[in-house]
Amino acid sequence: MAEQNRAVGSPLVLGMMRLAEQKHLHSPAQLADWIERRIDQGLNWYDHADIYGDGRCESLFGAALAERPGLQSQLRLIGKAGVIKVTRDSSPWNVSHYDTSADHLEASLNGSLERLGVERLDLFLLHRPDPLMDVEAVARVLERMMQSGKVAQIGVSNFSSDQWRLLQQVLGSRLSCNQIELSLRANAPLFDGTSEAMQQDGLQLLAWSPLAGGRLEEEGLGVMLQELSDQAGCGPAGLAMAWLRRIPGTPVPVLGTFNEERIADALAGCRFEMQRSDWFALLEMARGQRVP
Question: Of 42, 77, 99, 203, which residue is most buried, by most CB within 10 angstroms?
């Protein structure tokens, strides 16, 4: 088994996908205050992508950094590129698609750096596997990004083991992580070999949508989480984090909420060590079938 490469040294990453929807944080000063409060909690990793809010999320974040220049040195920023949404498709088809060409990736990286107002991303990810990806060309552009100092580490997002291994075999640098959907509701990576392959290859697992897009507390699973929360000292969100971090390799959740109480609960859950029987009871309830 390869040694785990801990790209992200934080119990949680804060996802900025819905920042543009948070009207109360559109003021640079208010967003800077919000970021400072997160730093005080020990949360300094922030997950961005060029398509989030069609670039608006990065621009809002960058305005907050410009408002409070001392913040930048305390933060670690993740960027992603490679997805073209319908609104940016210049073809007559109006189709969402992927573009991992060197020109597009370099332009996307430079655009993100400009909107964020920074000179470097701490981690740059290919957002989705591209069936038309030229792995040799992608490897060259990723290496060039790192050599230029614009990117500190590289990784992938939503890749299968075959997909990241194909890329890794032509890269001179190590892929550090794979960001995938993983939660109590979306637990397939624990049964299809993905989790084991990431441990074997030393990729850190970043888990997006760890609260299952609002479905975490529905039905019997919600009842069980509430029952366990009375003993655990944290709420359902915290228990969802504890469940994830009990998995070998200690996945790092990418938390998309801006609710400060929910963030505090999630952070408390990261400090809670879940018992094995509780972990399996929650899994059983989420899957709707008994563990064989």
Answer: 203
